[in-house]
Protein: HAD family hydrolase
Organism: Streptomyces scabichelini
Amino acid sequence: MTSDTTQTELVTAETENLRRLITGARFVLWDFDGPICRLFAGHKAGRVASDLVEWLERQGLHGLLTETERESLDPHSVLRAVDRLHPGSDLVAELEERLTQEELRAASSSMPTAYADPLIRTWTAVGARLAIATNNSPRVVRKYLASRGLVSSFAPHIYGRSQDLQRLKPDPYYLRCALNAMGAAPSAALMIGDAPSDFVAARQAGVPFLGYARNGHKNKLLQEAGTDPHHIVDSLEPVLRLLRTEGLSRARRP
């Protein structure tokens, strides 16, 4: 057997593996920031995290965060850190609203993930029901989807961050909200996410998972969390291609 033959067989096996994963999904649950768009493409998340830290310091609350938390480039890490100390407090509510306002600003300059728009429209066209389960604010999701003409593909099934931060992924709460609202069995659904927290939430909810990793670092994190490497793609293009091929095959069947 030649190396070319071996490589062809590996590609064919991977394609078939992916086909089984996506064509069995009647309900598709999407994470937002990553698989659908890069929310902070033009309004950097690190700057947002720094602004939240600076606001806390102006309130005389410098000591709430560890040095590592103060240097975090992830605004959600800052928010979670405060919530661990003061869960459900007015302080957490104010910080969450400040993050939401920053996300709303970011939505105006976010970058669509390649092939996400046509994939969403194609899945909708072939009869799948779609939902979003995200740690971002649902207000931000609706603003972005409206700008792309995609709200009707998801509404009303958009589930995201509230002031109850205990429900953020990796907790499966948002996924279960979507499943319950759509009357979906977990085995008939598919979760698309780009973070370990997405994978863990899907596993706890009993939902098959497709990882989207736009770079090697994302891929490594997903695999370390337990994602099957055959269930990770670095582009949504093969998913779209397979879905279109399967849709045409079904349409031609007598």
About this structure: The longest strand covers residues 129-133.
